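G., the chain you wanted modeled:
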Amino acid sequence: MMNSGPPTSGNLLAGESSAYLRQHAHHPVHWQPFGDTAFEEAAERDVPVFLSIGYAACHWCHVMADESFADEKTAAHLNAGFVAIKVDREERPDVDATYMAATQMISGQGGWPMSVFLTPQGRAFHAGTYFPVLPMPGLPSFLQVLEAVQEAWRERRDDVERQAYALASTIGEAQSTVRVKAAGETPVLDPGVLSEAVTALLTAEDTDDGGFGTAPKFPPSAVLEFLVRHAAVPSATADAAKSLAGRTLAAMARSALFDQVAGGFARYSVSADWSEPHYEKMLYDNALLLRAYVHWLRLGGSPEYPAAEAREVAELTADWMLSALALPDGLASSLDADTVVDGKHHEGGTYIWTVQQLITVLGRDDGEAVARLMNIPGSAPGEDTGAPFHQGKPRSRAESELWRRVLPLLRIRRAQRPQPARDDKVVAGWNGLAVGALAEAGALLDRPDLTVAAAGIATFLQDTHWVARPEPRPGDAGTRAGGETPPVAMEQGTLLRVSHAGRAAGRAGLLGDYAFCAEGFFTLYAVTGETRWYAYAQQLVEAALVDFMPDGHLVDSAVPAIQVLSAQDGKTGLDPFDNATPSGMSAFAGVLLTSAAYTGSREHRQQADRILALLPSLAARAPRVAGGLLSVAQAAAAGPVECAVVGPADSTSRTDLHRNLLGSPSPGLVIAVGTGDEQGPVLLRGRTSAASGAPRVFLCKDMVCQRPVESSQAMLEQLAQMTGKK
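Predicted structure as tokens:
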């Protein structure tokens, strides 16, 4: 029977570091953070757990909070019959992923806020997303849901428990792991799979408005990276890939998804034509899209989307990241979808303009011209509905001149408006993505300040998020499987996922955190030639092999919570598909491939190839959510080409050779640069300048090198031949 005693705790969120949890600290709901204590209370009181998952920038999370969680009557009901747990999905993506799977199986849909009802052991038995404060057609009120769940728990407990066990079993069966140390021949990727994926993506394109599918539309960052890489290598589908990438990049950049005034992309569009964004701005989206636009520049643009336009978008995005999200250390996670005015949330309030507002700021002629350019609906004075700037097409020369003239005034006026709140937590993996994107942007845009910023973020990640382990774990050092020794001397540590105010604490990062950070550090090394970034990337790769593949099976989480395991029938797993970011599995395959190119590690290359062996089935099922793996496969199919630039550090010729390599679109190109004397990658060892002292470039594939060359022209000709370009 249900224990009728009162809850043993009040609202316990005030001391939490998460901004999202603190947003709920004033509620009359007796919220607790996710952990054993809350579940033990549920078991002691014999009540179900109500698990609410969201994040700080989420508009509908704010709505449900203001409607239901702030309501005294609802809170009293929740406190009396449940243990209420609040989770920040960005801090605990492992918890979010498991209960999102449950929510989708129960309700047929997913999203945030996520509302899940659990047994005290953590098994889900009922779930939904947003529940309104009052009933709506086809949707009960939140209070009605609470009453129904209580009645089922009290009167039909056996049925509830059976349902929970059955769901856990189903989720467990859906868990997948990848055995990357299996014996036998290393699989060989069929390049035809890549062309087939391009063809499948073409059939999914929205030929009217750009992008894929229908509303809501999300920026397909991982797919764009694959298309740009595929376009760089001759094939029957290379031109189609380039055209598709150009149309998609152009559609997003010319739309309301992109902040035309200050830069930066919103999370997604609720309309098919990209004209109605969901206004939250996330670090991971902008880091991934910055990289996509910079890589588009390396291809040289196209008639669908000229390079000059892409350069402008890339610069604005990089500048927005470093202004809007910059912290004393690292980059913040996001800006809120809402702007709070007089205590009320207004979705997109900072970004919406009316015709009359434009006339007030710019004068009638320019104001009306900008309204036409940006598709702001006109109406009688005082009746403007307002809209975000949605260009929707290329600007003419006259329109570009108009925009350049008015933009400073618009920026000044918008900066005077109330601004969306910022979630200041630093997520390791997302900052790792930013390190790589900013480093490449600095090189390609000739903006050394961006590379300096990338190095500052990287230093913070290394100093704060990398925490020494108290003692080595078995397999941490010494000889690895296959008799190979680690390519760098390991300083054993753990990468913590989240930091607040310069202090990292809590759970270790997931596979994606390690992989994104390693990728960022490898990229920073390729751009700067500073060996410390290479060494730290290698440390992360080796640590990930220990933590996420201890028995040869690759998993996303090294130490899953016991309640998460219970919800998955005791099974650990690996999500092979991309979500808001590329899958951790695909990112790890990418850094293994890069590490193998730098070190000559046969083991790392085989591990990457075995992960890539999953590609045919994944790409056939859903290429739109396999872009990460497709991108890595494209790099593997191209070699990738390994480049060693050797010469005096102050040599202008070495700088020119290095710059031209950084501008090459060859997929997965791995670049090492140095004098030949430093302790760096194996790729540099034994390489020397010419007898004359002139710098040289050694281009290799699978550690088999061409004759060294001294000129950029000879280098690019050799690279084109190795990549397959005519």
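The longest strand covers residues 49-54.

Shout if anything looks off.
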